[in-house]
């Protein structure tokens, strides 16, 4: 009886049928990411804000960095952003909803982040902002990601860092002690809860730094 199903079972077990080839591709993408789970360390801030850090999340960070440097259509931009005019000495490229990301690991990262934060966030990550800090003079000034829903609603902004280590600093809006995390090649940092509206963050200039890229995953309507 059961023997009639045995060949199909075996084919899928050894990845010999079409559907399973696709499953293999997905597994391959995921294997470029190390597990999140209890490797994520949370720092609880004041006023309902928190920061999660998962060091060394991307297993193929070198490949993602090289591909992004070569393939992303980087643009120089100086503009009004967030709730004040900030200097934007860095290169940018925004991947809106539905636009394919420049590396399969980034697609896998977005999906893994959506799964990990779904219980808290209740919605998936949909967009990816990319930044290229060419050297220590490139930076982003103090701001919250408060264009759109980030100004009124809790959200999560999850950042993957690639290349030279840079400091991401945080301070409470209206004053108070700041803290910072030095983000290295392949690290993940997520700002959550009320962080975008009750705290500000910045990537300060430094005397010496090589190139660093960041990818910020956000939910719909948060910029
Ligand atoms: O590059 C980073 O790590 C932070 C970038 C950022 O805060 C932003 O683009 O809103
Ligand atoms: Fe930001």
CATH class: Mainly Beta
Bound molecules: 2-oxoglutaric acid, fe (ii) ion
SSE order in H/E notation? HHEEHEEEEHEEEEEEHEE
CATH topology description: Jelly Rolls
For the largest beta sheet, what order do the strands appear in spatially?
1-2-12-9-14-7-6-3
State the helicity in percent bands: 10-25%
Count of discrete domains? 1
Structural class per helix/strand content? alpha+beta
Proportion in β-strands: 25-35%
Radius of gyration: 19 Å
Largest sheet: 8 strands, antiparallel
The total strand number stands at: 14
Compute the average pLDDT: 86
**CATH homolog superfamily:** Alpha-ketoglutarate-dependent dioxygenase AlkB-like
Distance from N terminus to C terminus (CA atoms, Å) equals: 58 Å
Can you tell me the CATH architecture?
Sandwich
Q: Globular, elongated, flat, extended or rod-shaped: what is the shape?
A: globular
**Segments where pLDDT lies below 50 for 5+ residues?**
1-27
Show the helix and strand layout.
Layout: H1 6-13, H2 18-31, E1 41-44, E2 49-54, H3 61-71, E3 75-76, E4 80-81, E5 84-85, E6 91-95, H4 104-121, E7 127-133, E8 140-143, E9 157-163, E10 166-172, E11 179-183, E12 187-193, H5 195-198, E13 199-203, E14 212-218
Antiparallel strand pairs: 1-2, 2-12, 3-6, 4-5, 6-7, 7-14, 8-13, 9-12, 9-14, 10-11, 10-13
This protein binds 2-oxoglutaric acid (AKG) and fe (ii) ion (FE2).
2-oxoglutaric acid binds next to strand 7, strand 13 and strand 14.
General description of the model:
The protein is an alpha+beta fold. The protein has one domain: Alpha-ketoglutarate-dependent dioxygenase AlkB-like (Jelly Rolls). It has five helices and 14 strands. The strands form three sheets. An eight-stranded antiparallel beta sheet has the order 1-2-12-9-14-7-6-3. It has a four-stranded antiparallel beta sheet with strand order 8-13-10-11. A hairpin with a 2-residue loop joins strand 4 (80-81) and strand 5. The protein is globular, with a radius of gyration of 19 Å. The model is unreliable at 1-27 (pLDDT under 50). Fe (ii) ion (FE2) binds at residues 143, 145, 201. This is Alkylated DNA repair dioxygenase AlkB. GO terms for molecular function: dioxygenase activity. Residues 1-32 are annotated as: Disordered. Residues 124-221 form the Fe2OG dioxygenase domain.
């Amino acid at each position: 009886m059961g023997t009639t199903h045995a060949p199909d079972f075996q084919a899928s077990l050894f990845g010999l049928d079409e559907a399973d080839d696709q499953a293999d591709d997905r597994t391959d993408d995921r294997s470029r990411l190390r597990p999140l789970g209890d490797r994520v360390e949370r720092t609880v801030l004041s006023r309902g804000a928190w920061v999660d850090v998962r060091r060394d999340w991307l297993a193929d960070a070198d490949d993602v960095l090289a591909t992004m440097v070569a393939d992303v259509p980087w643009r120089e931009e100086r503009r009004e952003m967030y709730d004040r005019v900030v200097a934007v000495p860095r290169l940018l490229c925004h991947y809106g909803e539905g636009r394919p990301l420049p590396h399969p690991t980034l697609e896998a990262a977005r999906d893994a982040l959506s799964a990990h934060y779904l219980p808290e966030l209740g919605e998936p990550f949909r967009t990816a902002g990319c930044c290229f800090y060419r050297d220590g003079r490139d930076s982003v000034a103090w701001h919250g990601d408060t264009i759109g829903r980030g100004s009124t609603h809790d959200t999560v902004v999850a950042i993957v860092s690639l290349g030279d280590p840079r400091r991401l600093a945080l301070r409470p809006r209206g004053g108070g002690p700041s803290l910072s995390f030095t983000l290295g090649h392949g690290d993940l940092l997520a700002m959550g809860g009320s962080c975008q509206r009750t705290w500000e963050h910045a990537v300060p200039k430094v005397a010496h730094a090589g190139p660093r890229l960041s990818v910020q995953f956000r939910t719909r309507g948060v910029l």
